[in-house]
Amino acid sequence: MAEHFRETYFLAIRTCLLLVLEVYIVLTKSVLTGASSWVLLLLALFVGAMAGKELVKTRMRKWFLLGIAILLCGIMIVTLGKEFMLLGIFLVYEIFSIVKPSLIWYCMPFVLACVPSEIGIYVQLVFTMLIGIIYIQHDFVVASYLKQTQEDTMVEQRLKQNIHQQEHEYREEMKRSLLMAENQLLEERARLSQTLHDKLGHNINGSIYQLEAVKLIMEKEPETAKKMTQAVIEQLRMGMDEIRAILRKERPKKYRLALLQLQQLCDECNQKGVEAELVVEGELGEVSEKYIEIILDNAFEAVSNSLKYAKCSKIEITIYVLNQLIRCSISDNGVGCDMIEEGMGITGMRKRVREVNGILNFETEVGFTINILLPR
């Protein structure tokens, strides 16, 4: 309704102004004397031409109907008197509204208003001033505002498109990063398997052969068997040391595993018909493993609760790594709750956060949101 009013208000004002002018002209004594039927016919044709001008879409047809209105107005001024000069002034402003000249041209109709007539120059000037103010306001003030509004709308739309594009690119980059991390983990596992096979395979096989030999000579040569057994123990101990060294060297970074687990959690939600999204901003690799474990455990607990109780269709996990703190939010668009009853799940989340002097709070106005703040 408001949009329709903005589009048609100027047309309504012009129509009302035209009708007021015609009624005023008809009611003057000089016009009613002996020529009222012709006056009404010409005025009706004039109104029809002006109305038709508003209905047609093409610029050529508008000028055609406006030309008919100008011809009718000229006939009325020449044959019936200068009382119709106000309609001529109205037509001049209509022409200005189409051709959009500079502001100085809008003062020209005041010259026509100074032509003497039975209506009076004073009345003509007042009507001309009223009409001029209406057209100047629309053609310069309102038109400028509408133009600026359209430009702002276009800029806003471009910004929204850029934001959507950036969000899409960010999601795609996130997927690529997770895929790369998963590939790296698979490569690390393959390399770990190969390393264990290469470095420990011969060691273990040798130990097995020595133990078989010990079993054969244990009764006949107990001292030799004892020495061989001790050698196997030393060899296996060295093998365990090598295993620990390899695992320390080849162990995947915690934050990569956490990202993969969170993404798998979102994928599981999507498979269950609940749209889930993971958003990470900042360098998660700089966060300590303890904090990553807290975020991971709390996220799994929060998503599990949302799936069980929230009746939601969307879940979002956001992690922001800032200079002084880490902020993690798990939110859903479900039914929410008026009062939070802390069960074992929420109690466990609060305990984990408090152990590192963090803060845990909840938002229940729209859906349910769990906010976790951890100091760095």
Q: Identify the CATH homologous superfamily of the largest domain.
A: Histidine kinase-like ATPase, C-terminal domain
- Regions with little confidence, pLDDT below 50 for 5+ residues: none
What structural class do you assign from the helix and strand content? alpha+beta
Strand percentage: 5-15%
Walk across the major sheet and give the strand order.
1-2-3-5-4
Mean pLDDT: 78
Our Rg estimate from Cα atoms comes to: 44 Å
Q: Sum up the overall morphology in one term.
A: rod-shaped
Q: Class of the largest domain in CATH?
A: Alpha Beta
Concise summary:
This protein is α+β, with helices and mostly antiparallel strands and 376 residues long. The chain has helices at 2-27, 29-32, 36-55, 59-80, 85-99, 109-113, 121-217, 222-250, 254-271, 289-310, 344-354; strands spanning 275-281, 314-321, 325-332, 359-363, 368-375.
Walk me through the structure.
The protein has 376 residues and is an alpha+beta fold. The chain folds into 3 domains: 2-119, no CATH class; 181-250, Single alpha-helices involved in coiled-coils or other helix-helix interfaces (Up-down Bundle); 254-375, Histidine kinase-like ATPase, C-terminal domain (Heat Shock Protein 90). 72% of the residues lie in helices and 10% in strands. The chain contains 11 helices and 5 strands; from the N terminus they run H-H-H-H-H-H-H-H-H-E-H-E-E-H-E-E.
